[in-house]
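TICKET: design request
STATUS: open
ATTACHED STRUCTURE:
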């Protein structure tokens, strides 16, 4: 029986911001692919790079197990892998080299390799899986096993003679219930559980209920699951949650869909099943403000345990939202925040600075919206052009010296805009500090109004509030100086 060692190229320790957060999740896409080919009779194992020090840590495993295939299969549900960070790309190249050194056939599936397949083939990979990879992976393995050519396998790129053969993309899987549950048994779950409990006091795992996103925000890259939107059944998802709670003591889930609950009636059915099973958990999702405003979605989400929803607010300027082709109105951001709060659901905003053409007035509108609505959390990024997007086509001529970020906290503006790259880095910190200061002030005011109810964390909030004041003044001064240099 052919032996397959699955791995992936995301290393939390290479990404200081993410490693500092201590919120690691197992490589869900990787273990789903492993479960799929295992179900078809292949012997599979996993070398999970998330928590290790570097690519060379795989060597003892390869020497011991002697796999026939090394499958570098990145977790397409992890948005960090879509960012095509150069540190992770270099790690993937090292893994390819190690696999070839030990005589493995090397197969790669990732956002970056889908976009840059020529580079990966040149680095020694035997096959690149384009986009969603389970079916293409199985057919590739079967072809190798039967000593057949790869000409008939859709969804792959491979070296043929002195050239590279691209067989084109294949259609995505529509019936997601036909795929097996992820191979959770391959994960060293205690390692994850210990990190979560030591740093957060609870254990969280990741699940996915859908694949793809049908919306057309022109900066959003979708190299793996594309714009088709396919959904697991509510029962299938609830059964997996029940399994994970029973077997691993999970109390919180990160539902890592691009867009959660878009299918009509799904969130209501999910709530009913969760309640009938008496499942006790909280969860976090990503969605859109317009989706949150449909029918009784918020009520159903709250009834099934929704704790916090991350929404792509992006900007407080309608001009910027329209330029992004976001398809929402600023008024909807305000309305969704209000309604979610009324239902006891916390809200977090993704915000984006530096989109082409953004003006000082646009920036001030975003800052005002943020401080008006005060979500429970924020994630601020700088516009980042990724291959395959309309945004990338708009600015690609500027991407000469640098086309990818090094890590997720790089935040480099890599194209010409109204302000310098340094300006946007300072602006990012300035808005963050203003937000955190107001958060602290709100907690202090709540404490003064009701000391007994709001005493938790009041000392920390007070210290943090005072800490941010000089930083705000310093960054405001830097912004003024950089504006003069414009």
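STATUS: resolved
RESOLUTION: sequence designed for all positions
ATTACHED SEQUENCE:
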């Amino acid at each position: 029986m052919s032996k397959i060692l699955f791995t992936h190229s995301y290393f939390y320790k290479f990404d200081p911001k993410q490693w500092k957060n201590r919120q690691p999740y197992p490589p869900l896409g990787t273990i789903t692919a492993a479960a799929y080919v295992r179900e078809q009779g292949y012997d599979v194992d996993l070398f999970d790079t998330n928590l290790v020090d570097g690519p060379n840590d795989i060597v003892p495993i390869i020497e011991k197990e002697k796999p026939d295939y090394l499958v570098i299969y990145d977790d397409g549900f992890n948005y960090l892998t879509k960012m095509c960070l150069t540190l992770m790309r270099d790690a993937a190249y090292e893994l390819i080299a190690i696999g070839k050194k030990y005589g493995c056939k090397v197969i790669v599936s990732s956002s970056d390799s889908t976009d840059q397949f020529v580079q990966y083939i040149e680095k020694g990979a035997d096959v690149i899986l384009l986009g969603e990879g389970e079916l293409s992976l199985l057919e590739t393995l079967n072809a190798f096993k039967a000593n057949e050519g790869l000409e008939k396998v859709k969804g792959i790129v491979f070296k043929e003679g002195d050239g590279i053969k691209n067989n084109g993309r294949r259609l995505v899987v529509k019936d997601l219930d036909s795929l097996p549950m992820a191979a959770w048994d391959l994960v060293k779950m205690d390692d994850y559980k210990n990190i979560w409990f030591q740093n957060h006091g609870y254990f969280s795992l990741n699940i996915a209920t859908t694949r793809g996103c049908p919306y057309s925000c022109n900066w959003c890259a979708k190299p793996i699951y594309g714009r088709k939107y396919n959904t697991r059944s509510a029962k299938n998802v609830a059964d997996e949650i029940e399994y994970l709670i029973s077997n691993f003591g999970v109390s919180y889930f990160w539902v890592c869909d691009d867009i959660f609950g878009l299918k009509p009636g799904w969130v209501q059915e999910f709530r009913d099943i969760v309640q009938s099973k008496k499942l006790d958990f909280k969860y976090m999702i990503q969605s859109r403000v317009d989706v949150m405003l449909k029918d009784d979605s918020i009520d159903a989400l709250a009834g099934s345990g929704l704790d916090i929803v991350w929404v792509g607010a992006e900007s407080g300027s309608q001009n910027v939202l329209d330029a992004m082709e976001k398809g929402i109105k600023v008024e909807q951001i305000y309305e969704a925040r209000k309604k979610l709060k009324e239902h006891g659901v916390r809200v977090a905003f993704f915000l984006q600075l530096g989109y082409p053409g953004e003006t000082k007035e646009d920036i001030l509108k975003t800052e005002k919206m943020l401080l008006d609505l005060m979500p429970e959390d924020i994630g601020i990024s700088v516009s980042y052009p990724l291959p395959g997007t309309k945004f990338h086509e708009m600015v690609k001529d500027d991407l000469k010296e640098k086309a990818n970020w090094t890590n997720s906290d790089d935040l480099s503006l890599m194209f010409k805009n109204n302000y310098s790259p340094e300006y946007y880095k300072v602006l990012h910190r300035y808005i963050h500090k203003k937000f955190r200061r107001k958060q602290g002030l709100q907690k202090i005011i709540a404490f003064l109004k009701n000391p007994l109810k709001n005493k938790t964390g009041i000392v920390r909030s007070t210290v943090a509030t005072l800490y941010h004041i000089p930083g705000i003044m310093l960054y405001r001064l830097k912004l003024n100086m950089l504006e003069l240099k414009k």
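CLOSING REMARK: The chain has a mean pLDDT of 96. The longest strand covers residues 306-314.
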